[in-house]
Amino acid sequence: MRKLAIIALVIILTSPGSAFKSIGEERSNNHKSSIILFKFKDTGKTDEYSYYSYIIPDSIAAELKNRTHYDVRTHSVTIPYIKSDEKAEKLQEHILYLSRKGSELSAEYTISGSFEVKGNKIHIKSQLFHVPSKKLLEIEGASDEIGVLIFSLIDTVTEKINSELVKIAKTQPAKKGHELSEPVAATSPFLPTYRLIKGTTLYGEHGSMYLRGSWSDIYRDTDHYAAGLRYTLGNSEFFKHSPVFKDSAVSLSYHHFITLPGNMSSSLIVSGGAAGYSYEYPLLENFRLTGELALGLMYSTLRTYQPRIEGSGNGGPQAPKEEKHSTDPFLRFALLAGYELNPLIFYTGVSWNMILYADEPFEYLSLIFSLGFRL
C-alpha cells in the first residue's frame, strides 16, 4: 500500500499541468537552458526500494520545473556516482563522461546521484554538473523517515540544487538568446504539509480497567477506550538538537468508559480529553520504553435506576430516576513498551488514572494495548 501511495503521489506531481516532458518530446521553448536528471542508483543491499530510482529524479525535476525558468527533463539512464575525493584520474574520467552525456543531450546542467535505505533512514547523494565549465558539486541529504515523507527530504535537496544553480548562473556569461533565468520566488506547495504532519502519530487504545478504593466496592471493573494524536518533538527544527526534547512527544487524547454496579441500580458514563507529555527511551533499533504524564478534564454522567428485584419480571430497559453531571480534573501516568514496524507503532503497558471528584476521587489501574499509525 505504501508503494502504491508513493507512486500515485509521483503521478500527481508529474502530471501534465505541473511536470516536465520526456527527453524525446519536441519543445517549443528550446531557447531555455536545460537541466537533465538521470535515474538515481540504488546502493542498498535489497531491491525493496528500487522504485525510488525513478521517484527521486522525477520529484526533483517537478520541483525545479515549478521553481525555475529552466527546461527540466529526465533521462532513464543511471550515471555511476563518483565521489569528488576519488583519485584524480578516476574523477577526471567521470567528469569527461558527464560532459559527453551533457553535450549529447544539449544540456547546460546534469543531475545524477544515488540513494540508500538502511533501517528507517534514507540517504540521498546527488551531483550537480555544469557542462560548459565542467564544475561538479555534491549535494547530500538524509532523513529518518521513508515512505511518502521522503518528499520532504527531496524538497530539501531540491532547495540546495536550486541554490547552486543560481551561484553557477551568476558566474557564467549570458549567451544571446540563451539567457539563464534566476529561480522564480516560489515555495513548494507540498512543503507546509510535510512540516505540519511529519512526526504525527494517529493512535487508538484499549484498556482493561481495575477500580481501586471505595468505588471498587460499588462498581464493576470494565474496559476503557481512547483515541488521539501524538507529535514527536524531535521532528521540529527547534527541538531536534535538544538532548531531552528530541526524544519527547506531546499528545491530545479522548477517553471514554462506562461502568455499572452489580445490581444495575446506576451507571457511570465518563468521557473527556487530556493533553500529555511523554519521553521515549530507545532500547534497541525499533524498541522503546515510554513514560507519559497527561492532564485533562472528564465529563461524568451518573444515572440512577430502580434496583432490579430477581423474579419480578422487570428485566427490560428502565428510564433513569435521576441524572447528575459533573466536570472534574483528570490525571494519568502511563509506562509503556513500544515496537515500531514503520509506519505502525505498537504499545503495551500499564497506566494509573484518577478522576478528582469532589467527594471521593475515582482511581483505577489499566492494562493497555495501543496501535498507532505514523504519518
Keywords:
375 residues, alpha+beta, eight-stranded antiparallel barrel, six-stranded mixed β-sheet, 20% helix, 43% strand, elongated
Biggest sheet: strands, sense, closure?
8 strands, antiparallel, barrel
Strand content: 35-45%
Widest sheet: strand ordering: 7-8-9-10-11-12-13-14
**Estimated radius of gyration:** 30 Å
The general outline is elongated
Structural class: alpha+beta
N/C terminus separation: 14 Å
> Quaternary state, please?
single chain
H/E element string? Answer: HEEHEHEEEHHEEEEEEEE
Residue-averaged pLDDT? 78
Count of individual beta strands: 14
Characterization of this structure:
The chain is built from 5 helices and 14 strands. With 375 residues, the chain is of the alpha+beta class. It has an 8-stranded antiparallel barrel with strand order 7-8-9-10-11-12-13-14. Strands 1, 2, 3, 4, 5 and 6 form a 6-stranded mixed sheet that branches. It is elongated and about 90 Å long. Residues 4-30 and 176-187 have low confidence and may be disordered.
Strand and helix map with partners:
Layout lengths: L1 H12 L20 E6 L1 E2 L9 H16 L3 E8 L9 H17 L4 E10 L2 E10 L4 E9 L6 H22 L19 H7 L2 E13 L10 E10 L15 E12 L6 E17 L4 E18 L17 E20 L2 E12 L6 E13 L1
Parallel strand pairs: 1-3, 1-4, 2-4
Antiparallel strand pairs: 4-5, 5-6, 7-8, 7-14, 8-9, 9-10, 10-11, 11-12, 12-13, 13-14
